[in-house]
């Protein structure tokens, strides 16, 4: 019998990526586990690249979605009013915005993170009348043209033209002896610096694809203050770092920051369904009707599961407490692994953690060895040198320890 994977090799584009590293035919999933066609189990430390923070096929979301389908509920509704959309907005305002004193409006963009970024860039430029946007080294904001322009990776940007972006060093990029916030301030304060006044400053508080780089609170506060002084909007990309990944719903929670624009996607639906939002501070909501649209911005299935997720996980602090505790388990395990690899270091925050093994070869070897032993884990960083631990936030302790044990053996085998 032919291997069914041959069909993908024959007919799917060369652009396919994850399937090359994790070469199995997956057929079902539950919680933090995947199962292939041979019945083999894999512990999932990839979690759909952050789209499955609550695990695969949460039972409450599954039940609600099946009932919705059975009852003939709407699948998509453009931006028409629907009961499902009403319930989602009500839950998001009640459980996310109001407890934080935020009054941002919800813009339903096309259902990808990149489209939310595109909307944010367009709105910032429209609102300010400026074109330039400041982005940072090692940033990742998506691969559509505008989002790609503010992404740092040369591999992803290829040789395509990307104008209107000034790229500056992220916190710590030039080492502890260089104050990159002071550089930003000096360039913006100097009318002869060569940098046009920006429409926006766009950033991730924890850079996932960039290698789990964490910006310090003082650095962030100075960047936000500089943006405010110079009339630029702040755009926080919480597509991967949000929805609980860093310890609370937003990555900026507890840091005395109020972004003008916030992008959300990935785990927003709670179920791996395509769904994105741009949160807009009311004073910046200057869109004309229909000025940024998308056919599938009315994904009612995603709104439904997102509402279940909000009511299940974000009505109290129970999940945040578990994220903190499990994050410590991960950090402690990675710290022990780092002791056995020259110059290795632990990076990240909450359950958005990584182990920098210093070389691409070492990290790739560890990822491949882990997969052979039943653990799915990807690499990140400018050179693919960081093992990126993104287990679902709901991973049971026993399964988390089991996955970390597999990873530990893989790291030891790859240290060279």
What are its keywords?
single chain, seven-stranded mixed β-sheet, Aspartate Aminotransferase, domain 1, Aspartate Aminotransferase, domain 2, 17 strands
Task: Tell me about this structure.
This protein has helices at residues 5-11, 18-21, 47-50, 59-70, 83-97, 113-128, 145-149, 154-157, 180-189, 217-229, 300-313, 318-338, 360-372, 397-414; strands at 26-30, 33-36, 41-44, 105-108, 133-136, 165-168, 200-203, 206-207, 213-214, 233-237, 261-264, 277-280, 345-349, 352-356, 375-376, 378-380, 386-389. By secondary structure, it is an alpha/beta fold. The strands form four sheets. The chain has a seven-stranded mixed beta sheet with strand order 4-12-11-10-7-5-6, sandwiched between helices. Strand 13 and strand 14 (352-356) form a beta hairpin. It is globular and about 60 Å long.
What structural class do you assign from the helix and strand content? alpha/beta
Shape: globular
Question: Looking across the biggest beta sheet, what order are the strands in?
Answer: 4-12-11-10-7-5-6
Radius of gyration: 21 Å
Q: Based on the structure, what is the oligomeric state of the protein chains? A: single chain
Ends apart, CA distance between termini: 39 Å
Provide the β-strand percentage band. Answer: 15-25%
Low-confidence stretches: none
Q: CATH first level of the largest domain: which class?
A: Alpha Beta
CATH architecture of the largest domain: 3-Layer(aba) Sandwich
Helix content: 25-40%
């Amino acid at each position: 019998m032919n291997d069914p994977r041959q069909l993908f090799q024959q007919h799917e584009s060369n652009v396919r990526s994850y399937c090359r590293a994790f070469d199995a035919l997956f057929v079902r999933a539950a919680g933090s586990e995947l199962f292939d066609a041979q019945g083999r189990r894999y512990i999932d430390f990839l979690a759909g690249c952050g789209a499955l923070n609550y695990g695969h096929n949460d039972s409450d979301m599954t039940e609600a979605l099946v009932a919705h389908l059975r009852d003939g509920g709407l699948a998509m509704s453009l931006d028409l009013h629907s009961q499902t959309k009403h319930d989602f907005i009500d839950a998001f305002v009640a459980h996310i915005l109001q407890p934080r004193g935020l009054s941002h409006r919800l813009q339903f963009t096309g259902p990808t993170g990149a489209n939310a970024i595109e909307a944010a860039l367009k709105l910032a430029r429209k609102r300010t009348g400026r074109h330039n946007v400041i982005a940072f080294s090692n940033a990742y904001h998506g691969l559509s043209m505008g989002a790609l322009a503010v992404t740092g990776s040369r591999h992803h940007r290829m040789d395509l033209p990307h104008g209107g972006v000034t790229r500056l060093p992220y916190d710590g990029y030039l080492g502890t002896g260089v104050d990159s916030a002071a550089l930003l301030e000096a360039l913006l304060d100097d009318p002869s610096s060569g940098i046009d006044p920006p429409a926006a400053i766009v950033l991730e508080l924890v850079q996932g694809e960039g290698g789990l780089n964490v910006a310090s609170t003082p650095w962030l506060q100075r960047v936000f203050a500089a943006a405010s002084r110079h009339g630029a909007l702040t755009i926080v990309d919480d597509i991967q770092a949000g929805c609980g990944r860093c310890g609370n719903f937003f990555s900026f929670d507890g840091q005395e920051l109020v972004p003008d624009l916030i992008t959300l996607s990935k785990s927003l639906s709670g179920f791996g369904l395509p769904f994105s939002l741009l949160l807009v501070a009311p004073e910046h909501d200057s869109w004309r009707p229909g000025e940024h649209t998308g056919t599938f911005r009315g994904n009612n299935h995603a709104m439904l599961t997102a509402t279940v997720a909000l009511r299940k996980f974000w009505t109290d602090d129970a999940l945040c407490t578990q994220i903190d505790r499990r994050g410590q388990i991960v950090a402690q395990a990675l710290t022990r692994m780092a002791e056995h690899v020259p110059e290795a270091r632990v990076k990240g925050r909450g359950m958005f953690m990584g182990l920098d093994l210093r070389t691409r070869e070492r990290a790739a070897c560890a990822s491949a060895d882990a997969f052979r032993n039943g653990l799915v884990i990807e690499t990140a960083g400018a050179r693919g040198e960081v093992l990126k631990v993104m287990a679902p936030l709901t991973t049971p302790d026993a399964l988390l320890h089991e996955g970390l044990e597999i990873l530990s053996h893989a790291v030891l085998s790859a240290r060279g």
